[in-house]
Design goal:
The structure holds 2 protein chains of 2 kinds. Chain A is about 30% helix and about 25% strand. Chain A is built from 11 helices and 12 strands. Chain A has an 8-stranded mixed β-sheet with strand order 6-7-8-3-9-10-12-11, with helices on both faces. A 4-stranded antiparallel β-sheet of chain A has the order 2-1-4-5, with helices on one face. In chain A, helix 5 crosses helix 6. In chain B, the strands form 2 sheets. Chain B has an 8-stranded mixed β-sheet, sandwiched between helices. Chain B has a 4-stranded antiparallel β-sheet with strand order 2-1-4-5. Chain B has 10 helices and 12 strands. Chain B is an alpha/beta fold. The two termini of chain B are about 20 Å apart. The chains are: A alpha/beta, B alpha/beta. The interface of A and B includes residues 43, 44, 159, 215 and 274 of A.
């Protein structure tokens, strides 16, 4: 059994709005081991970002309410910590990088100062030392230390994201949460940043939660993959298991929707319909109305995650021992 | 192949669009030439700032090109007045990336789809127009019960369907699609791509498909043009381009696509170094040379033009013959 940096158990998060209760995260449990990169995959509104914000206890309240669950980070339940202790955890034990690097940076502060600021917030008293460490961090992310006096607007999108990564890693966090870190970048720059993330993961022994909707990005960097749908984890396994031995019909649907680089001209196979409104989730499996394998019982009860070795899936079809997805039967 | 043999709907010849900036001339589009056959799709790919959207807008004359020619259906429309263009716009339509900002938040679905029909007085009479709007909604897969909903009540996929219905309302022949599915989730993206493909078959549409997403463009296009800093660096039929990319930039671009494959059969990636250079005051040399692994002295002697390497496969690289 390897040591876990993060353990989330039975997390439930609701947004209580005037129009009704948005059930964003419904009973999510997963863990991340040391040095592991876990990819959290799903479409808009699946609850990925809300899950991530919960780890930092940053779910906007109101309207967000963490209804249930525990989040053990480095042995401490962050949901029970008082605000002043949380401030210490954020940045030091867990750091987060966001999709848009421009809005994450302060436009009137040099990039060196911004990295140094986060170092000083977490213990360093000497400004000179903090700035020196900031320059070191810039070199780590592939920016010349001589540019530490630049302002964010002087940098390109890719370089800004590098600065954000430098800030996040400056205090050597045990866990780095990256929410769509390359979505706003061009494909060639994305490739550079993904390479950097992999390299830093090895160099700093940081565990990582990578949130993305892009299965290509997941295949590129993740050790494990958790697939989220309508606020639940529907499949969780190693990258090899999820990509090459897919179990959940939704995951299969995602793969089928991708334009295939090798076959051209064929019709794509989209998942029919849309994700259910989180204000109005169906009683049973949330994917059942769109699922080509659904049987009447799927609509009655929410399926639990069941184990098949290290590979977990929440689908009742597997109660029939012979059930197989089409993707797997064609080899 | 000779152009006369083909049924060309759109021809763009040496199109240039410069913008004056405080730092100098910004070469957004710098000598782009291509043709699109009727009923076919040309994909234009490239990274942010390469000039692909500006090219699309110049074709529709939403912005005035600095020089060059745009020939639509055999007619040179480069110097058409805005009144003449207005008539032509019924035949040339555009689908935009963000279906939220391209729709009026105070218009219902019905009003949004009827607007272009009223505007161009294509059909008279409220009843007739609304009948046509309902037909269009059916064509793009919008349920009739949605006629009185507003854009904010709908998800991205449905909003993009409204965008497509509006573009189709005028029975266009040519549709310029500027990143039409980039803002959508993959499962919805697949629905919209299938719809666009089906409409092309049924209505004989010609598409210019502008995108940064290479897997989408390969799926969708008959021919692909790769743009870098305002110029085409390679142009070839889709399969040919993906199987035999010849320009060093195209090779790097294809290699950068993160493939959804784990384990076996995964090709080695080669990263491109540096970032796109500024399009302001460009020197007369290969625009890619600073990031190119194969740079040599010849690359600094003049800006290479597109040359036909094999039938229909064009490359702008001074060293292409050595590198093949």
């Amino acid at each position: 059994m390897k040591e876990n940096i993060l353990e989330i158990k039975d997390l439930v998060v609701h947004y209580e709005t005037d129009e009704g209760c948005v059930r964003a995260v419904n009973n999510v449990s997963f863990s991340i081991g040391k040095k592991t990169i876990l990819g959290l995959v799903g479409e808009t509104g699946a609850g990925k970002t809300t899950t991530a914000l919960s780890i930092l206890n940053l779910v906007p309240n109101p309207p967000g309410v963490i209804k249930n669950g525990s989040i053990i980070l480095n042995g401490v339940d962050v949901l029970t910590l008082p605000e002043n202790k949380l401030q210490e955890v954020r940045g030091k034990d867990v750091a987060m990088i966001f999709q848009d690097p421009m809005t994450a940076l302060n436009p009137v502060m040099t990039i060196g100062e911004q990295i140094a600021e986060s170092i000083m917030l977490h213990g360093e008293k000497d400004k000179e030392k903090a700035l020196a460490r900031a320059k070191e961090m810039l070199e780590h992310v592939g920016i010349a230390a001589s540019r530490s006096g630049d302002y964010p607007h002087q940098l390109s999108g890719g370089m800004r994201q590098r600065v954000v990564i430098a800030i996040a890693l400056a205090c050597n966090p045990r866990l780095l949460i990256a929410d769509e870190p390359t979505t706003a970048l061009d494909v060639t720059i994305q490739a550079q940043i993904l390479e950097l993330i992999k390299e830093l993961n090895r160099k700093f022994d940081t565990s990582m939660l990578l949130i993305t909707h892009d299965l290509g990005v997941v295949a590129e960097v993740c050790d494990e993959v958790a697939v989220m749908y309508a606020g639940r984890i529907v499949e969780w396994g190693t990258a090899d298991e999820v990509f090459n031995h897919t179990l959940h019909p939704y995951t299969e649907g995602l793969f089928n929707s991708l334009p295939n680089l090798r076959k051209r001209g064929e019709d794509l196979v989209p998942i029919k319909g849309m994700m259910p409104d989180p204000m109005n989730l169906p009683e049973g499996c949330a994917f059942a109305p769109r699922c080509p394998y659904a049987v009447p019982q799927c609509e009655k009860e929410v399926p639990e995650l069941i184990k098949r070795g290290t590979h977990l899936v929440a689908c009742r079809a597997y109660e029939d021992g012979n059930f197989k997805l089409r993707r797997n039967s064609n080899g | 192949m000779d152009n006369k043999e083909k049924d060309i709907l759109l021809e763009v010849r040496d199109l240039k669009k410069y913008f004056d900036t405080p730092k100098g001339k910004l070469h957004a589009v710098d000598g782009v030439t291509f043709t699109v056959e009727r009923g076919k799709t040309l994909g234009i790919v490239g990274e942010s700032g390469c000039g692909k959207s500006t090219t699309g807008r110049c074709i529709l004359k939403l912005i005035e090109p600095t020089s060059g020619k745009i020939i639509y259906n055999g007619e040179d429309i480069t110097n058409y007045s805005s009144r003449k263009m207005r008539k032509l716009r019924t035949e040339m339509q555009m689908i935009f990336q963000d279906p939220f900002s391209s729709l009026d938040p105070r218009q219902t679905v019905m009003q949004a789809i009827c607007e272009p029909i009223y505007e161009h007085k294509l059909i008279r009479g409220k009843k007739e127009v609304e009948k046509r709007a309902l037909e269009l909604m059916e064509t793009v897969g919008l349920a009739p019960r949605l006629i009185n909903t507003y854009p904010h009540e709908l998800d991205g996929g449905r909003r993009q369907r409204i965008g497509i219905a509006r573009a189709l309302a005028l029975n266009p022949k040519l549709v310029i699609c500027d990143e039409p599915v980039s803002a959508l989730d993959v499962s919805i993206q697949a629905q919209i791509l299938n719809l666009m493909k089906q409409l092309q078959k049924e209505l004989g549409l010609t598409y210019v498909f502008i995108t940064h997403d290479l897997s989408v463009v390969k799926y969708f296009s008959d021919e692909i043009a790769v743009m870098y800093l305002g110029q085409l660096v390679e142009k070839a039929p889709s399969d040919e381009l993906f199987e035999r990319p010849l320009h060093p930039y195209t090779q790097k671009l294809l290699s950068a696509i993160p493939l959804p494959i784990v384990g076996k059969k995964k090709p080695e990636r080669s990263l491109i170094k540096g970032e796109i250079t500024s399009p302001v005051n460009l020197p007369d040399e290969c625009r890619f040379n600073k990031r190119c692994d194969f740079r040599s002295e010849v690359c600094l002697k003049g800006n290479p033009q597109l040359q036909e390497i094999s039938p229909n496969h064009f490359v702008a690289c001074s060293r292409v013959h050595e590198l093949m």
